[in-house]
Specification:
Radius of gyration: 12 Å
Number of domains: 1
Shape: globular
Strand order of the largest sheet: 4-1-3-2-5
Distance between the termini: 38 Å
Largest sheet: 5 strands, mixed
Strand content: 35-45%
CATH architecture: 2-Layer Sandwich
CATH topology: Alpha-Beta Plaits
Amino acid sequence: MILLKSRVHVIISGRVQGVWFRASTRDKAEQLGLKGWVKNTYDGKVEAVFEGEEKQIQDMINWCYQGPPMAEVKDVEVKKQPPTSHYDGFSIDY
């Protein structure tokens, strides 16, 4: 079985700051074995890059539509990108 590596850039909008979204995203990404980063944006959104196997990335995208319990997600923008294998793990960027 060949596992395809993939990468997506995601922007999540709604009530996603101040509700543990970044920490919960990191925890979920690590649980799924994904690499990349997550950060808050200046306009109140959360931005992330996920890199790994396609199934795990799809599971992560599905999770982003709900987020942690206090979040109210309104939209998730997903853009596919070529994988880079640049990341050693998953981090919260500031």
